[in-house]
Amino acid sequence: MTKVTMTVNGKAVSAEAEGRTLLVNYLREGLGLTGTHVGCDTSQCGACVVHVNGKAVKSCTVFAADLEGAEVRTIEGMANADGSLSVIQQAFQDHHGLQCGFCTPGMVMSSAALLAENPKPSEAEVRHYLEGNICRCTGYHNIIKAVLAASGQDVPAVAAE
Amino acid sequence: MHNFDFTKPSTIAEAVKALSAEGAQALSGGQTLIPTMKQRLAAPVTLVSLTGIAEMQGVCMGEGGLHIGAATPHAVVARDAAAHYPALAALAGGIGDPAVRNRGTIGGSIANNDPAACYPSAVLGSGATVVTNRRKIAADDYFQGMFTTALEEGEIVTSVVFPIPEKAAYVKFNQPASRFALTGVFVAKFKDGVRVAVTGASNDGVFRWAEAEAALSADFSAKAIAGLTVDADGMISDLHGTAAYRANLVKVLTGRAVTAAR
Ligand SMILES: Cc1cc2nc3c(=O)[nH]c(=O)nc-3n(C[C@H](O)[C@H](O)[C@H](O)COP(=O)(O)OP(=O)(O)OC[C@H]3O[C@@H](n4cnc5c(N)ncnc54)[C@H](O)[C@@H]3O)c2cc1C
Ligand code: FES
Ligand code: FES
């Protein structure tokens, strides 16, 4: 075991990690930040997406030890300073972008990464960007609406094909 | 997953030294190796991370074409190669999903040489040079069948140098669940001829389609290959597509790539 130090949601943190400790275990078990979910553990579902140095990363597919000194942001760091929901989170609530909520932390983190790169994405761009985020409740249309609303654009009547 | 010692050198020389130890293995983006370790199909004693080595990062023009550091993530290639080699940038931007592209690297992809991976077709289709800590390997000698390459024990890819064609395109037919290539074709037109590299289709991994190269070198248009057929013998057959289906896809996608090339 060695100590791994990072900045998580703006705070300097330090926790013990083995070589094999994944970032998601470091966050959930080491730091008690259980908002980041493990949906598959096989790198396919995106429920575990967090930001590492500003980029969306699957926290189940990176070792904590490889991220010594990194800046990490998780769903716990997404709300506004006064505790109210951020624009993206509020849009998910307003547009029913979540049902059971299991995929939601990853959806919100991926959506935030998209809007940071591309502030006014088209519907097709949102769908393409969220390709690696799977929602078992299949609430995709409302998720797309939420992301478009969060970007300040009109929300189209997304056809439920 | 079995436990291991973790080390993160900051130079190629230190990494090579660390990799000479018994049971040591390179870790780049981990997007293939970590899932493999979770399944206990790999159990290294020591993992040597290549992600902290500055000399293995980045995209720049240099002697022989576009140089890409082996530890450069797909997302960086998608962004920084766009002005120099748009077909390569587009290929990198179509791998997996954004989170995979932020970690996965070109060196890891071509060291692994998955028969359905995208990059091997660009490396072979461009006639690129694979640079290692020991030597330079021509793409034609580098890929040696599925999951097999010319790399020796303890040898790492440090960069890849791509000559830039007049026109090129990669067209991928997605395997809908994994988003790897069910079949993918990279076509590159150089002054002295055309190269066509196919991934996802053959039991032998990435390969060049010689008949199409000859036909397209004489006439660079989709109709030039209309009369050709691809033998289904040796093609991959699985629940996503039969060997005959893949053989047909090779021809269809080659035509599409020629039409899309720019
Ligand atoms: C959900 C998902 C979807 C994907 N979709 C696609 C896709 O559509 N197309 C595609 O092509 N790929 C796809 N991939 C694979 C992805 O591109 C991987 O990033 C890539 O295959 C491996 O690169 P890596 O840097 O992650 O390597 P790692 O996983 O770190 O390493 C892979 C292997 O290469 C060795 N290695 C790593 N770097 C070097 C080096 N410099 N020299 C020598 N050996 C080295 C390692 O020891 C290991 O054996 C996908 C992966 C996932 C998880
Ligand atoms: S838990 Fe990480 S991708 Fe599913
Ligand atoms: S809301 Fe249930 S998995 Fe997406």
Tell me the overall shape of chain B. globular
The name of the CATH topology of the largest domain in chain B is Uridine Diphospho-n-acetylenolpyruvylglucosamine Reductase, domain 3
- Ligand list: flavin-adenine dinucleotide, FE2/S2 (inorganic) cluster
Low-confidence stretches of chain B: none
Strand element count of chain A: 5
The structural class of chain A is: alpha+beta
CATH class of the largest domain in chain B: Alpha Beta
What's the order of the H and E elements of chain B? EHEHEEEHHHHHEEHEEEEEHH
Q: Termini separation of chain B (Å)?
A: 45 Å
Q: Which structural class matches the secondary elements of chain B?
A: alpha+beta
What Rg of chain A do the Cα atoms give?
A: 16 Å
Q: Which overall shape of chain A is indicated by the principal axes computed on the Cα atoms?
A: globular
What percent of residues of chain B adopt helix (DSSP H or I)? 25-40%
- What is the arithmetic mean of pLDDT of chain A? 95
- Give the second-level CATH assignment, the architecture of the largest domain in chain A: Roll
